[in-house]
């Protein structure tokens, strides 16, 4: 079993610098490499600012300079990889760039070194195919900003060894994080896939004239208790561009990775949603960064005030019954468990309650099934998305 002591981070953007900071704050020595001096300088500046904030709040019990001294900037990949027990890749979200990098990294490391990617979307099985020793590789998906967000997703690729997963899980606990293991290399992993299930259903209900955008977001905020509605969240995070970019490699990844998309109903909902997403891309409606997305934003304020009363007519089950159903599907095929689903949404997206916590307090299994059957009747071309999963039907 690998005893992880020496950490290397490749890529020093927002995520890479934040990850390096977390390890340094936990008294690990961290080697950092990035080809851009600008990224290095900006990353160090961000870490200094963040450490000062931790110090001001009494959450750092040592001099910030001591933490910074544990982050060592190296000039080349060879030095970054030398003697590393764990190498964390956090470069640009491009599969070709990442696989080329992994081939280089493997030249300079020992057989016991673990390599991980912070990718949020690229199949782990695809990335690990570039390596000779595939069992040492896993997904290690952090959430932004890394110093504040507790959740880490640890994703198994087709060839990932159990001891690799255990080493990463134990390390995550040691640095104060709350890890969840994603047992199949499924599209969107866990947290993002759950949010996408809700997003696709919201888009479908809007496209089919059930409700308008603000009504849906209002219901999610005031009835489900979310910090922001799904449409505003998509605008805020650049989700339109992300979904569109991923669609360009969808078929390639699906053919390559056997677990990438195992649910035809989810796939149909995705393809239906892409119709609106592609239209928005053509119109330049990318979200907050362009001033227009699902909403229109003024130059002076990006905040939205969504009234409670406009969501009153929304049947919340129209939105969440497909999500509950898909959560059961993910459990049934061995991706995860109920606790991890609830943890992922609470820690990854700041939900007040987990999905199963909310469902069990407010609804019966029969109500969920009736809602799905109603949706299937009203939207028959997407009936596979609304077919009650056998685990839900069994009443677990």
UniProtKB/TrEMBL annotation:
UniProt-recorded Gene Ontology molecular function terms: NAD+ binding; oxidoreductase activity, acting on the CH-OH group of donors, NAD or NADP as acceptor
The segment(s) forming the 3-hydroxyacyl-CoA dehydrogenase C-terminal domain are 188-297
SUPFAM superfamilies per the record? 6-phosphogluconate dehydrogenase C-terminal domain-like, NAD(P)-binding Rossmann-fold domains
3-hydroxyacyl-CoA dehydrogenase NAD binding domain residues are 7-185
Signal peptide annotation: none
Name of one Pfam family that matches: 3HCDH_N
Keyword field contains Phosphoprotein: no
Q: Which UniProt keywords apply?
A: Oxidoreductase
GO terms in the biological process aspect are: fatty acid metabolic process
**What is the name of this protein?**
3-hydroxyacyl-CoA dehydrogenase
């Amino acid at each position: 079993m690998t005893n992880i002591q020496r950490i290397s981070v490749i890529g020093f953007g927002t995520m890479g610098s934040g990850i390096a900071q977390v390890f340094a704050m936990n008294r690990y020595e961290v080697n950092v490499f990035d080809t851009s001096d600008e990224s290095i300088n900006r990353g160090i500046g961000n870490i200094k600012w963040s450490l000062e904030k931790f110090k001001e709040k009494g959450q750092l019990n040592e001099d910030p300079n001591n933490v910074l001294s544990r982050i060592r900037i190296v000039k080349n990949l060879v030095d970054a990889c030398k003697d590393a027990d764990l190498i964390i890749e956090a470069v640009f979200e491009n599969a070709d760039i990442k696989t080329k990098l992994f081939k280089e990294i493997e030249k300079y490391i020992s057989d016991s070194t673990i390599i991980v990617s912070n990718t949020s979307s690229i199949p782990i099985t695809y990335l690990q195919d570039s390596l000779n020793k595939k069992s040492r590789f896993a997904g290690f998906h952090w959430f932004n900003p890394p110093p504040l967000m507790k959740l880490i997703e640890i994703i198994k690729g087709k060839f990932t060894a159990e001891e690799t997963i255990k080493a990463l899980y134990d390390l995550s606990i040691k640095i104060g994080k709350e890890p969840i293991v994603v047992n199949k290399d499924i599209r969107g992993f866990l947290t993002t896939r759950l949010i996408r299930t809700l997003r696709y259903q919201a888009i479908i209900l809007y496209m089919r004239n059930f409700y308008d955008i603000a009504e849906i977001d209002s219901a999610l905020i005031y009835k489900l208790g979310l910090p922001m509605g799904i449409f505003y969240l998509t605008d805020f995070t650049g989700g339109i561009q992300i979904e569109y970019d991923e669609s360009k490699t969808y078929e390639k990844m699906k053919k390559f990775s056997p677990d990438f998309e195992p649910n035809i109903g989810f796939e149909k909902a995705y393809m239906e949603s892409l119709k609106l997403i592609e239209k928005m891309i053509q119109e330049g409606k990318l979200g907050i960064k362009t001033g227009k997305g699902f909403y229109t934003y003024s130059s002076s304020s990006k905040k939205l005030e969504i009234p409670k009363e406009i969501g009153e007519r929304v049947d919340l089950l129209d939105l969440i019954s497909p999500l509950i159903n898909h959560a059961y599907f993910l459990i049934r095929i061995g991706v995860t468990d109920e606790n991890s689903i609830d943890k992922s949404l609470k820690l990854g997206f700041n939900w007040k309650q987990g999905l199963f916590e909310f469902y069990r307090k407010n609804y019966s299994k029969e109500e969920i099934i009736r809602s799905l059957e109603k949706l299937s009747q009203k939207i028959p071309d997407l009936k596979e998305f609304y077919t009650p999963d056998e685990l839900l039907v069994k009443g677990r």
